[in-house]
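Lecture notes, part 5. Sequence design as translation. It can be helpful to think of inverse folding as translation between two languages: the language of shapes and the language of residues. The source text, in structure tokens, appears below.
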């Protein structure tokens, strides 16, 4: 099955050949999440709910039409925290602890991701993280659901403080990805944020979009959505209930060190999750810097100088 299921968009971002399916490598008794030899696909979607009967089954059926390894879900509406298996997929979830079916997150792990899984942390109903074994570096995928416009600015600040604390817990040099619904519009103008934002955003920036970009800049996280040219219909992640207004409020971030490893990030409008949000997928092919050995210079002697009697005399034993 191609990366894009049965769609006609089966080519790799920026290329004409279909991406190779990742062949996992065994590292320290676990399969590595990342490799320079293949592509890993990370996705995120605000599914609006998994609490309704049959919604989880439909979600799994829909995502299985695509090539994927990890899928983050916002607004699962599940309560409590835990993990379970469903149709061969490992699901880690974190919801509210007061039995209110609001907010909530889930991370779905495909077979390769299950093999590379090391540990997870359920911070609260808005932040959950999973650590995976890598070939040279481990990776941390943090799924989030930021407070929407109905919440006070204090709630937003608390959310970002908790998120930054989670990022500080990761190891230096590891791959860090933050994915999910940020409920923020960063717009298309990247002035002042060129180091972490590309030229292909959409719409105008909101105040909370400014706050999100400041967070990204402080934590050296690149907004991968904005680095790849696509038609605007493949950049919008959310549609207003009126069906007219659209914008991008879901993002896949990666630390700047690994940004060039992102082959592409794109909205898959053909996916049907019965939501006002669209499926967002990102292809990752980790590029490791090769450090070559310095060549030792072999000393060369000018034997012609030995024809000079004074030089010849100096080299006599």
């Amino acid at each position: 099955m191609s990366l894009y299921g049965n769609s006609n968009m089966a080519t790799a971002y920026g290329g004409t050949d279909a991406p190779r399916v990742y062949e996992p490598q065994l590292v320290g008794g676990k399969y590595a999440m990342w490799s320079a030899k293949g592509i890993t696909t990370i996705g995120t979607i605000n599914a609006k709910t998994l609490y309704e009967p049959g919604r989880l089954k439909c979600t799994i059926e829909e995502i299985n039409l695509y090539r994927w390894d990890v899928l983050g879900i916002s607004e699962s509406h599940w309560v409590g925290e835990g993990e379970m298996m469903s149709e061969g997929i490992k699901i880690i979830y974190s919801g509210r602890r007061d039995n209110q079916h609001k907010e909530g997150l889930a991370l779905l792990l495909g077979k390769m991701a299950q093999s590379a899984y090391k540990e997870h942390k359920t911070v609260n109903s808005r932040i959950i993280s999973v650590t995976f074994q890598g070939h040279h570096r481990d990776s941390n995928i943090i799924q989030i659901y930021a407070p929407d416009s109905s919440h006070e600015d204090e709630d937003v600040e608390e959310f970002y403080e908790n998120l930054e604390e989670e990022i500080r817990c990761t190891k230096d040099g590891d791959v860090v990805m933050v994915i999910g619904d940020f409920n923020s519009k960063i717009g298309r103008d990247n002035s002042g944020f060129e180091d972490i934002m590309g030229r292909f955003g959409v719409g105008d920036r909101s105040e909370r979009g400014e706050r999100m970009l400041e967070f990204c800049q402080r934590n050296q996280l690149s907004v991968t959505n904005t680095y790849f040219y696509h038609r605007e219909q493949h950049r919008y992640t959310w549609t207003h209930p009126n069906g007219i207004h659209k914008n991008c409020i879901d993002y896949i971030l990666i630390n700047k060190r690994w940004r060039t490893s992102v082959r592409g990030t794109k909205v898959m409008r053909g996916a049907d999750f019965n939501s006002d949000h669209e499926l967002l997928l990102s292809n990752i092919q980790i590029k490791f810097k090769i450090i070559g050995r310095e060549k030792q210079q072999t000393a060369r002697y000018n034997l012609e100088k030995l024809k000079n009697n004074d030089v010849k005399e100096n080299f006599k034993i």
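The translated text above is only one of many valid answers, since several sequences can fold into similar shapes. The longest strand covers residues 40-46.
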